[in-house]
Amino acid sequence: MSRTAIWYWTTRAALGWLFLAAVQVVWLVLDDGDRAVHVAALAATVVAAVAHVAVMPQWRYRVHRWEATPAAVFTRSGWFKQEWRIAPVSRIQTVDSRRGPLEQLFRLANVTVTTASAAGPLKVDGLDRDTAQRLVAELTANAQATAGDAT
Fold first, then answer.
1. Which residues have CB under 8 Å from 151's CB, separation 6+?
2. How far apart are CA 48 and CA 13, in angstroms?
3. Burial class of residue 101 (count of CB atoms within 10 Å of its CB; 0-12, 13-18, 19+)
4. Which backbone phi and psi does 61 adopt, to 5 degrees?
5. How far is CA 130 from CA 19, 39, 72, 96, in A?
6. Burial class (CB in 10 A: 0-12, 13-18, 19+), 8
7. Contacts of 12-19 spanning 24+ positions with Cβ under 8 A
8. Which pLDDT score is estimated for 135?
9. pLDDT of residue 107
10. Listing from the earlier edge strand, what are the strands of the sheet with 72-77?
11. From edge to edge, which strands make up the β-sheet containing 122-128?
């Protein structure tokens, strides 16, 4: 994963918390009810936001991993309960790359590897754009060169 992903995840989390805080500020200003409750809720939001924005991106960067070999794709994800998934190249059905507007700003991309597994696709998030393009090309070439029915 790209170290830039840390800044992307930080920004994305901060924007979500800022939206929630803005809604609470508007509610505080417009409501004539008990201001102490509104202020307490806003303070709790700020504390949770600071903790989330400070911890989540670093933790996610340290835990989430991926590797692609000619034989398989490996991903590790999760927060407290970590999941290690392996998809044989012979089972790959599609390889997709996605970049949202904020990811484009940070020059990042995500790769999704779809297989016939009931567990769902494997996702590799937070790649720099060039690495994502190389991974898609490599997995596509490996899947085409591997005998199997991808089911």
1. 91, 116
2. 11
3. exposed
4. -65, -40
5. 32, 46, 21, 14
6. buried
7. 12/102, 13/49, 13/52, 13/53, 13/56, 13/57, 14/49, 14/53, 17/45, 17/48, 17/49, 17/52, 17/53, 18/49
8. 92
9. 95
10. 65-68, 72-77, 83-88
11. 92-98, 108-115, 122-128
pTM of structure: 0.80
Q: What does DSSP assign to residue 118?
A: T
Report which DSSP code applies to 90: G
Q: What's the rounded Cα separation, in Å, for the pair 111 and 87?
A: 14
Kindly state the tokens that stand for 138: 């490599």
pLDDT tens, residue by residue, 60-84: 898 888 998 888 899 998 888 888 9
Determine the length of the chain. Answer: 151
Quote the pLDDT of residue 151.
53
